[in-house]
Amino acid sequence: MNKKEIIVEKNKKLVTILQDFGFSFADVNKMLRNKDVRINGKIEKGNPEVQAGSEVAFYYSDDMLEKKYQIVFESENVVIVYKSAGIETAGDSGLEKIISGAIAVHRLDRNTEGLVIFAKNSDAEEKLNTAFKNKLVHKFYVAEVVGDLNCSGKIFSAYLSKDSESSFVKISDKKVPNSTKIQTKITTIKHGSQSSLVCVELLTGKTHQIRAHLAFLGHAIIGDGKYGKNEDNKKFGQSRQKLACFKLEFDKIGIEELDGKTFEKKPKWWNF
Predict the structure, then answer these.
(1) Which residues pair with 74 in a beta bridge?
(2) N or C: which end of the chain has fewer CB within 10 A?
(3) To which H or E segment does residue 235 belong?
(4) 35-91 residue pLDDT tens
(5) Is the distance from CB of 83 to CB of 68 less than 8 angstroms?
(6) Which domains does the chain have, with CATH numbers?
(7) Closest-CA residue to 180 (of 190, 195, 170, 167)
(8) Are 63 and 98 in contact (CB under 8 A)?
(9) pTM exceeds cut of 0.85
């Protein structure tokens, strides 16, 4: 059995904390029944609201988390993992806490799966942060979208504005107050009358850019509950967005094991 201790960052129900960490609802209930969960040192079998600053400790077996992430590459400086949908990159229940010594240098949305790189020391963290800032790390995404989208490396430009309170972004074809220009490069992998599989490269990296921009173009990501349509998601039987960061390309960034390298892993639903 493994033991993990976390400090809760904000008030949240215990079951939610454990699910956010990556456990299934069934596994959470099993842990509670087996008295494997403690709040501030006291065994807890219910689902109370845990106050910010409290310590939650729990015991779990390796198989409970084996489907939540897979290590693709690891060295003394970095670790690259393929994370599943439904788990955070950082935060008190994210991969940054699950993987020993990991320091998050970029993020994927909770419900976006794919490749994420973590630094393992301060020097690697600084070099990776600089590389991302200078656009020396290139991220490629694959998405299955609604409808027939057929284009070959076309760059779509638009303007994005963010509503911080609702965590929602809006796309427009003309500049509006507080908007930022975005560019999204789309290359079709396979297309059909019902849905299409596309490769997306962010030329600008803004919050929810891929999801919102594709929806604006009339081709929302299948399973996207925020920017897609409920009727489409029900039609395809998807409750989670079919979006994955499947490839990372590194220019020369000063970390020998990454310089000039490409790491790639396709999601299981690639061949739809």
Answers:
(1) 79
(2) N
(3) helix 230-236
(4) 999 999 999 999 999 999 999 999 988 777 656 788 999 999 999 999 988 888 987
(5) yes
(6) 2-62 (3.10.290.10), 140-244 (3.30.2350.10)
(7) 170
(8) no
(9) no
